[in-house]
Amino acid sequence: MHSKLAEYARMLSSWPGLVTAPPLPLIEDSLVLLDHLQEARSLIDVGSGGGMPGLPLAIARPGLRVTLLEADRRKGAFLVHAAARLGLEVEVVVERAETAAHGRLREAFDLAVSRALASMPVLAELCLPFVRVGGRLLAMKAGVEPAPGAISRLGGGAAEVIPAPSPARERGLLVVVPKVAPTPPAYPRRPGVPARRPLR
């Protein structure tokens, strides 16, 4: 595992524009989620960017079915390259979350994960539609804005906020949202709308 993580860190460093900080602490930050995966068999990383937290989790948990969702084609190309180089059988989907969540990926995963994606109301709308009922959203945050109304409207239950410090984020938090009911068909809304008009 450690050799693959080191190789992944080298790839992040050599591909311009993916990370603005040393990659190893960011990878270690992603691995904070390992203690919270429980018995999950499938995971979608929404807004994967350079592959975090999805790729480190795929390396650390062989057998976990990982899908990396990223709207930016250049970053998507890196994800395909990195997965092939590391010998990982992950799926890369280059599409906006608002569009992808209305197709075959809807409510198809035990877990949705995200790292520094958006404010909590926006993040919930972009991620919860991918989670099956009984699954969970794991959102890595630096601070938390309460969003019980938005979460409830999207099929989520009461959120739990857990301290999750790492070398990259001394005050890192993990927001765990259980999926207790199907997400209504209207969500997520059209591309760009969740960010422009967050749910209340």
Tell me the β content.
15-25%
Q: What oligomeric assembly is this protein in?
A: single chain
Class derived from helix and strand content: alpha/beta
CATH fold topology: Rossmann fold
Contiguous runs where pLDDT drops below 50 for at least 5 residues: none
Number of domains: 1
Q: How big is the Rg?
A: 16 Å
Q: What distance separates the N and C termini?
A: 42 Å
Order of helices and strands: HHEHEHEHEHEHEEH
Number of E-state strands: 7
For the report, how would you describe the main beta sheet?
7 strands, mixed
What is the average of the pLDDT values? 94
Q: Superfamily at the CATH H level?
A: Vaccinia Virus protein VP39
Enumerate how many helices there are, as a single number.
8
**What is the CATH architecture descriptor?**
3-Layer(aba) Sandwich
The helix content is 25-40%
Main sheet strand line-up: 3-2-1-4-5-7-6
> What's the CATH first level?
Alpha Beta
The outline comes out as globular
Keywords for this entry:
8 helices, 7-stranded mixed β-sheet, Rossmann fold, alpha/beta, 200 residues
Structure commentary:
With 200 residues, this protein is of the alpha/beta class. It has a single domain, classed as Rossmann fold. It contains 8 helices and 7 strands. The chain has a 7-stranded mixed β-sheet with strand order 3-2-1-4-5-7-6, with helices on both faces. Strand 2, helix 4 and strand 3 form a beta-alpha-beta unit. It is globular, with a radius of gyration of 16 Å. The mean pLDDT is 94.
